[in-house]
Design goal:
By secondary structure, the chain is mainly alpha-helical. The protein has a single domain, classed as Butyryl-Coa Dehydrogenase, subunit A, domain 1 (Orthogonal Bundle). Helix content is 50%, strand content 4%. Strands 1-2 form a two-stranded antiparallel sheet. The longest helix has 17 residues. The chain starts with 6 loop residues before the first helix and ends in a 15-residue tail after the last strand.
Length: 153
């Protein structure tokens, strides 16, 4: 039983490492950490051009239809580079919630936009209410500079 990475996953790792070494050096990361947005539009679009935003989404939604191991390989390289920005929250928290619990209409509206990088990363639906029927996905935008309070029961 072979439990190693596939040749394609190793290629993804190598290309991600090369891209991040060139586009996300430590000086870039430090500069982003000093700014409230932690991301530039130019860098966000460069990430989109790599096809990474749609890595988990099916091809009909603008993605590449790869799996969790592939995203783990990619995120390992992102962590190695200390890549700033809302990739995780956009692709995995927001997008994966829409993929798994969103209605067909929500998936058609959001997944292609996320996959192409054509959205405001701070405005991806973040609230998932699971009740009878389909999930209730709502937008939860707020000013990132202001504190917030989470309540639960």
């Amino acid at each position: 039983m072979d439990i190693g990475f596939t040749e394609e996953q190793e290629l993804l790792r190598a290309s991600a490492r090369r891209f991040l070494e060139n586009e996300c050096p430590s000086a870039f990361v430090r500069q982003r950490m000093a700014e409230p947005e932690a991301m530039t539009e130019v860098f966000w679009q460069k990430l989109a051009e790599q096809g990474w935003f749609g890595i988990l989404y099916p091809e009909e939604a603008g993605g590449s239809g790869l799996g969790l191991v592939d995203i783990a390989v990619l995120m390992e390289e992102m962590g190695r580079a200390v890549m700033p920005g809302p990739f995780f929250s956009t692709v995995l928290l927001g997008g994966a919630a829409i993929l798994e619990a969103g209605s067909q209409g929500q998936q058609q509206e959001w997944l292609p936009r996320i996959a192409a990088g054509r959205h405001d990363p701070g405005r991806v639906p973040a609230c998932v209410g699971l009740g009878p029927g389909e999930a209730n996905l709502g937008r939860a935008g707020r000013d990132a500079r202001k504190p917030f309070l989470l309540l639960g029961g």
